[in-house]
Amino acid sequence: MKKKVPVSQIMTRNLIKLHLEDELSVAENLFKKNKIRHLPVVEGEHIVGMLSYNDLMRISFADAIDDDGESIETTVYDMFSIESVMTKKVISISPETTIKEVAEIFTKQDFHALPVVDNDNLVGIVTTTDVIRYLLEQY
């Protein structure tokens, strides 16, 4: 198994992002439409937070449906902003951080996605799923 492989080899580069001024309903739609669980929150290209699907679920019944099978619009989203729900103290990594180092961070922290930042600009995101896929390819 290669030991010094940089995270840039497995990170997602085509990012789906949120902006601080976005509504929580936008976040819910992005999570569901793209079948993802983590969204970086940006101002310009600078990361200011991370929002996970679990963060959203903590404040709502995002998967509630009515009798017709249609999604119910949740009014709880009107009570919160992206900024009030997102994680603000984000640990970021550089594209040169090794996959091994990323795996170590994931095992010691209580989150499952890391933004990848180069020269203070968000360039990617890596998740626990990305790391597991990489490890599976090694066997």
Automatic annotation (TrEMBL):
Any Pfam family: CBS
This protein's UniProt keywords: CBS domain
Taxonomy, superkingdom: Bacteria
Domain CBS: 11-67, 86-139
Xref: CDD domains: CBS_pair_AcuB_like
Lineage: Bacteria, Pseudomonadati, Bacteroidota, Flavobacteriia, Flavobacteriales
Annotated InterPro entries: CBS_dom, CBS_dom_sf, Diverse_CBS-Domain
Protein name, UniProt field: HPP family protein
